[in-house]
Structure formats: structure tokens, C-alpha cells
Design brief:
Helix content is 29%, strand content 20%. It has 394 residues and is α+β, with helices and mostly antiparallel strands.
Length: 394
């Protein structure tokens, strides 16, 4: 067999089997997985054991002695790790960043402020320039047509509304210290990151709920809740006012030229009842009651049309901690029904980031015996339309 033929056979063999070829993780990548496992016990490392403690993780990446001098000793690190091209004095700090970023993301999702009930659209933003938001209106009915008698005609043009807003930055630095490593303070670090996740989620939720609380301005230049919009009431929370509010939202009309009622579908009802904490028990009673009396003599008993309307387990009752008035309440339509709050996130990242900010200088692993990690969250939004909510200011 000639040399050319041999090379051709090898090329064919490589092409044939290339789909089955996969590169395994190198030693540094396995250590990074072990670090993730240390802070996220449920993480699937695909067979790699997690580090036993913080001290083991630190020394495995840095080669630092057991007393933790704060210096990088690559000669004490395993040969397999040293051979990795991207291994350096920063390997530990970035592995810790990735592990804590995973933990931050998990914790961020855990805190239920329910601001998603107001967000109808989430979009990525490429930069910090103003976001130009356009809400498309509705067409009128399709006209009758007889193709044999004439051509199809253009439908009446729909209207649209426009607004602008910008993406802002929120964040702070949290420090992991040398003492945390020496004392193996895994729980303390997790607790600190969990608190940062909580404040990031609370800040995001409060940003969204403030559109509701502060009666934000609509693209038409008027406030969200007004008598002219037909979505502002004064009655205290009760059976009849609930019916009135739900009916008012169902009677809202699509923007011109349509002007048809938005309506409601009880079979797929996914609306929310929003109350302050002080009204949570009353809201549950109104949702769970099968019937009620319409007169003080307790003789006129009628079925409750709102029975379980906000969930069998009251899962669509939101006791919002940001509502300061103890009597105000409201109803929010399903965000799939009509536009409400539009939110934009830089590069589409909806959760906060955990980013290594400051630490080693030259060959020293610490700066002031600590590493600084930045929690950063970048987003902005605006109110798109008033038809999604009704508020009662009692």
C-alpha cells in the first residue's frame, strides 16, 4: 500500500469516527467541579468527588501551606493541574466565583416576591442606550371578501404606542476572607451569598412593583390607574367589589381600531389578587368561601362567583410586602392577555452575576486578607399598557 493510500485511509477513518470522539475533562476542570460541589451539594459532577472542606479546596488550587500564608506555590500543586494551560494564581478565585455564582443563582430564584405577575415581556438589551419600546395595537375584524368579484382590500391600519427607558446597574461587593478559609466557614459564606441573592431579588421585585405602587405613567401620558381608564376604585375588599373589578377588567377594550372587549375565560383564569400583608387573611376568606349572605339578617345566601378563582390553594393571591397602605388592593390580569410591564436585561441575563473584583497582587493571593466579589444586576423597564390591572385605593 502506498503512502498516499495509507493517508487517505486514515483520513476516512477519522471522518467516520469523529462523531464519537470526545475530550474528557482535564484535572483543573475536575477541580472546578469539585469546588461547585462543595458549595452546591446537589450539583452533578459526573463522578468527581467534591472537596471535603474549604481548606482542601484552597490548597489544591494554590499549593499554599496548611497555615495559609497567602502565597501561590505552584510546585506544590499536582502535576496534572500544573500541566493545564489555563492554570494560574487566579485559578482558585475564579473557581470560587463560578461555585458561588451557581449558588447565588439558585438562591435568587428561591425568594417569591411574585413580580413576574406584572412582567409581560422580557427582552435582551445590547448596551445602556435608551430602549425604544413599541406596543403594537389591534386590527379590526377581517372584512368579507368575494375574490371573484374583486381583490382583497387592505385592512384598516392598527395604532401603536411608544416609550423609552434605559437599563441601569445595581450591585455591591461582598468579601470572602482568609479567615473563612482557615475556619472552613462554608455555611457562613453560603449564608452571606444567600443574603446577597435575597437583596438582589428584593431590589428587582421592588423595582417592578413600584410601577404599581407609584401609579406609573403610561405611554399615553396618563397614570396607570385613573377614572378615565376605568381601573381605579375606592371600595374595600369584599365579594361584590371583587366582582366589579373583574368585570371592569373584562370590559376593557382593545386599542382602536378594534375596540372589542378583552373579555375573560374562566376555564383558563390566571389572574392575581394583590393585597398588602395585613389583608392576606381576608383575601383567603373571600377566595375560599363557597357562598355569602347579601343582607344583615342572614337570609339571602348566594353562591360566591369568586370561589377558588385565585387558586384552590390561594396560589394566585399575592401578599406584597412593598404595599404600605393596609387597605389598598387590586387585581392583575394574566400577563399573557395584554401587555403590562416590559423589562430589558443587559445581554439577556435576568439573574444577578457574581464576579471576581479584587484580590491577588502579583504572587500574593490576598489583598488585605480577603477577596472581593461583585454582585451585579443590570436591567430596566417601563409600563406598556394600563389594561392589565385594576387598583382600589380605599
Amino acid at each position: 500500500m502506498g503512502r498516499e493510500q495509507l493517508l487517505a485511509d486514515i483520513d476516512r477513518a477519522i471522518s467516520y469516527h469523529s462523531a464519537g470522539i470526545s475530550m474528557g475533562r482535564n484535572e483543573l476542570e475536575k477541580m472546578q467541579d469539585a469546588m461547585k460541589k462543595l458549595f452546591n451539594p446537589g450539583y452533578d459532577t459526573r463522578g468527581v468527588a467534591g472537596f471535603q472542606d474549604f481548606h482542601e479546596a484552597y490548597t489544591s488550587f494554590t499549593g499554599d501551606e496548611s497555615i495559609i500564608k497567602g502565597s501561590f506555590w505552584p510546585q506544590n500543586v499536582s502535576e496534572g493541574v500544573r500541566s493545564c494551560q489555563d492554570f494560574s494564581s487566579s485559578s482558585f478565585t475564579y473557581a470560587l466565583q463560578n461555585a458561588l455564582s451557581m449558588y447565588l443563582s439558585k438562591e435568587y430564584k428561591r425568594f417569591p416576591y411574585h413580580e413576574e405577575a406584572l412582567i409581560s415581556d422580557r427582552r435582551p438589551a445590547k448596551d445602556f442606550r435608551n430602549v425604544h419600546s413599541i406596543q403594537i395595537g389591534y386590527f379590526d375584524e377581517l372584512p368579507d371578501v368575494d375574490p371573484e368579484a374583486g381583490d382583497y382590500e387592505s385592512i384598516a391600519p392598527y395604532g401603536d404606542t411608544e416609550s423609552e427607558y434605559s437599563v441601569g446597574q445595581k450591585g455591591a461587593i461582598v468579601f470572602i476572607t482568609r479567615r473563612h478559609v482557615i475556619n472552613d466557614s462554608i455555611g457562613l459564606v453560603q449564608g452571606m451569598v444567600s443574603r446577597m441573592a435575597r437583596v438582589a431579588r428584593k431590589t428587582h421585585a421592588k423595582y417592578v412593583w413600584n410601577f404599581w405602587i407609584n401609579n406609573a405613567t403610561c405611554p399615553d401620558g396618563t397614570a396607570w390607574f385613573t377614572g378615565g381608564h376605568g381601573n381605579l376604585g375606592t371600595d374595600a375588599l369584599n365579594f361584590d367589589p371583587l366582582v366589579t373589578v373583574i368585570t371592569a377588567l373584562a370590559n376593557m377594550t382593545e386599542p382602536t381600531p378594534s375596540a372589542e372587549k378583552l373579555g375573560l375565560d374562566l376555564a383558563t383564569f390566571n389572574w392575581h389578587l394583590v393585597v398588602p400583608i395585613d389583608l392576606w387573611d381576608l383575601a383567603v376568606k373571600k377566595n375560599q368561601a363557597t357562598s355569602y349572605y347579601t343582607s344583615n339578617d342572614l337570609t339571602a345566601k348566594v353562591p360566591n362567583p369568586c370561589h377558588h378563582l385565585f387558586g384552590d390553594r390561594n396560589e394566585r393571591i399575592i401578599a406584597c410586602p412593598f404595599l404600605t397602605d393596609t387597605n389598598d388592593w387590586g387585581v392583575v390580569r394574566d400577563v399573557e392577555d395584554v401587555p403590562m410591564i416590559e423589562m430589558s436585561y443587559l445581554n439577556g441575563r435576568e439573574e444577578p452575576e457574581f464576579i471576581y473584583e479584587q484580590g491577588e497582587t502579583e504572587n500574593h493571593l490576598f489583598k488585605g486578607d480577603k477577596w472581593g466579589y461583585k454582585v451585579r444586576h443590570e436591567y430596566g423597564g417601563d409600563l406598556a399598557d394600563y389594561r392589565g390591572g385594576h387598583k382600589s385605593v380605599v
